[in-house]
Design brief:
With about 160 residues, this protein is mostly beta strands. Helices cover about 10% and strands about 55% of the residues. It starts with a strand and ends in a 10-residue tail after the last strand.
Length: about 160
């Protein structure tokens, strides 16, 4: 599968194709699609952690010793997600109480989370090298993505 997920200027983009040739999904738009793509971007920011800094517009509010709510605003969209930290202070779970629809039999918004582990230093930044994404359904977690980073590099502004 080749999947292109993006959030650009208030618009969500999702294109999935088998071997990059046979289109399985091709959506663009605002509203729920844009919100879902911004949510995905926000959770995946653990792979480019400078995007989570307050200087980038992220507002952090502590919940307890191991979690905080982070809020990101872009145009008319405002997202707040729960970030949970492990014993070393690294992000291990990013959760949204409602994201939807899940593309399956649940048409409404359901809880959604990303889990991250196997942190390592790459180009001077500590980032997770493995992760998974799941819908948190009443009958249990429905993982729909698992992946690992095999190569990652960063370019820093001078």
């Amino acid at each position: 599968m080749h999947v292109h997920d993006a959030y650009v200027a208030g618009e969500g983009i999702l294109h999935a194709a088998v071997l990059g040739l046979v289109s399985m999904a091709n959506q663009r738009g605002t509203g729920d699609l844009a919100k879902g793509e911004l949510m995905r971007f926000f959770a995946e920011a653990v792979w480019y952690p400078t995007a989570l800094l307050p200087s980038q517009g992220v507002l952090w509010n502590a919940v307890d010793d191991h979690s905080a709510r982070a809020t990101l605003k872009d145009g008319d969209l405002t997202l707040t997600m729960l970030f949970r930290f492990d014993k070393d202070g690294l992000i291990d779970i990013v959760r949204a109480e409602a994201r939807g629809p899940d593309g399956g039999r649940h048409n409404g918004a359901v809880p959604w989370q990303c889990r991250f582990w196997n942190y390592a230093i790459r180009d001077g930044m500590r980032v997770p090298l493995a992760g998974e994404v799941a819908w948190l359904l009443p009958e249990g977690a429905k993982t729909y993505f698992r992946g690992r980073i095999t190569k990652i590099s960063y370019e820093f502004a001078q």
